[in-house]
Amino acid sequence: MDKKNALRVGALAAGTTLMMLLMSSPALAVIPDDGDDPGPGLSVMETIGLYVVAPLAIFAVITGLVMVLDKSSDRQSKTKAKA
């Protein structure tokens, strides 16, 4: 990709991000709507468990299943196979 295209892509990405930030209005979240029932907040440990530990655990389970259920017979590296 040449410099002109890279600059164009960067400007487009920055402009899109800026417009999305400006169009979202978090200040409206202060005013509660009818029927809002937010409930209790999460503790720090619950937040870390929900947003860090749980995705890592799911990733580990999927990775483990792929490794265990892999049926391919080519397990040697290609550099050792030539020698």
Any descriptors?
83 residues, mainly alpha, 3 helices, 63% helix, flat
Model description:
- The chain crosses the membrane at residues 48-69.
- This is Secreted protein.
- Keywords: Membrane, Signal, Transmembrane, Transmembrane helix.
- Residues 1-29 form the signal peptide.
- This protein has helices at residues 3-23, 44-69, 78-82.
- The chain is built from three helices and no strands.
- 0% of the residues are buried.
- It is flat, with a radius of gyration of 24 Å.
Helix segment tally: 3
Name the helix and strand elements from N-terminus to C-terminus, one letter apiece: HHH
Mean pLDDT: 84
Could you name the ranges where pLDDT drops below 50 across 5 or more consecutive residues? none
State Rg.
24 Å
Organism: Streptomyces graminofaciens
Keywords: Membrane, Signal, Transmembrane, Transmembrane helix
Protein name: Secreted protein
Summarize the structure.
This protein is mainly α and 83 residues long. Helix content is 63%, strand content 0%.
List the helices and strands and how they pair.
Elements: H1 3-23, H2 44-69, H3 78-82
